[in-house]
Every structure is written in C-alpha cells, then in structure tokens.
Amino acid sequence: MPKKEVLRVADTDIKYDRTTDFVCLNDIAALQGDPRVHIPNWLRNITTLAFIEEWERSTNPNFNAHQFTLLRGRAGTGAFRVSVSQLTDIGCIGVYSKKGRTGGTYAAIEWAIHFANWLDPRFYLQTLRGYLAMQKSLYGLHATHKRFARELAAENHILPTSSAISALPPEADVLVERRIASVEADIVNLALWGMTAREWRTRFSQPDPKLSMRDFATPEELKTLSSLLVLSQELQQQGYNSEERLDRLTNRANDLINHYCKSSEKQDLLTLTQHKRGWGRFIF
C-alpha cells in the first residue's frame, strides 16, 4: 500500500502533492477559519509579497521582475488585492489553483511554511514538524534532515534582505533592490563559506545557473546558514554596518558549526564534503 501523502498539522490532514512538493493552503487556512479570507489577506501583505519576490527570483529563471514590481507597487492601499491567477499570469511558479475533489490553492512548501507562520505561530511549528515527519516517512532520515535544513534556510533567506529593502525610499527601482539583496546574501555567504556567490560561480562553474552554494551544503551548514540569517537581521536592526556584521557572523558561524558537528562522524563528513566539492573553510 502506498504511503499516504498528507501533512499532519494540528491533528488534521493537509493535502500534499508529492510530485511538485506543493501543499494545500486551504487546508491550513481552515484550521483558523475561512480560507476565502485568510489566503487573500496573506497574499496582499507587504511582507508576503517581499517573500514571494525573493522566492521567485531564486527559483524561477523566467521570473518577470518588472511585472511583479508593478504589482507590488500598489500594495498598502485599502483596495489592494492579489489573486492566485494574477500571480500565475505574470509568471509566478510557486502557487497554483486546482479544481475538483482535491482542489484548492496549492503552494510550494516554503510558501506554506510562510503562510502558516503568518496565520499562527503554533501552526508554523506544527507545519514544520508535520513536514519533517512526512519527509522522514517518504525519503528516510538522512535525506529528510538535508531537505528540512534546506527549506528552513530558504525560509530565513528573506529576513535580512526584506529589512534592508524596506528601508529604501519608495522610488528605488528593482535594480537597486536586487543589488541590496545580493549584498545581504553575500555577507552571510562570506561568513559561512568565505566567498561571495559571484566568486563561487566563477571558481566552480555550474551547468545549471539556478544552483547555488546551498545546493551543495551539508545539513549542518544549512542549519548554520539559517541561524546566521536570523542573526544578520537582528544585527542590522541594531544598527551594525556590513563590516561589523560580517565579523560577528563569521565568529558565530565557527561556533555554530562546532555545535552542529559535535560528533567525529559529522566532522569527518563535513571535512570530506569540503574536500570533494573543493571549497569550505572549516577545520576540526
């Protein structure tokens, strides 16, 4: 008998499409009330739009940044609304609507986790745990740890970026925002791996332009990355400049890697991984 492809959140089955890794947002929203209210309100939220833009930029090679910027520019007014069809019409691939018995609004797991956090922190935690349990059942423990750490790092990736972009004047164009996002990401890249994304692509060219250093990281590196992203946002809000944040994040990365790689087996695995891929800065 095939494994049942559902998430368990708050003792409720949440429909999950294993083929696309998409989750039914209607089922999550129903835990807190009417999906017809919660999903549109979440989609029109400025923080949600910033998250969607970052996710699409990093995932969708055909993302129409100009059209999305025009859409996001109307946010904040009382009449502003965003529908799933609007997002798909301008080329977003992280969400779609499905009709029929198993119909509803389906979104990538990162979107579902973001939505659960917006809806209720309790659902956020339970969604994370439910996803982890389901992945363990489907793929096994080691692969689950890697996938989970990857999703968590992706979820936190937007934190320092959104804070920096929100401080820009309204007239700032998309090229300025893109540059700010790149700088913020590279502060963490330098702290963890000792190189920027551009340096990595130059030294270790990849046939797939969508691949990043995160795709080759160990679970311990991804968990460290997730923590550094949260810390970077906190330091940013406290007024630390880029150089000060890089210094503190680098020291923290050392502490976190040693924390997550307590056993000799994990230390050996990270050492071997760094050797095989040709980059990494940690020595035990």
From TrEMBL:
- Domain KilA-N, chain residue ranges per copy: 3-134
Q: Which SMART domains match?
A: KilA-N
Name any one Pfam family assigned in the record: KilA-N
The stretch of residues making up the signal peptide is none
Entry superkingdom: Bacteria
Q: What is this protein called?
A: KilA-N domain-containing protein
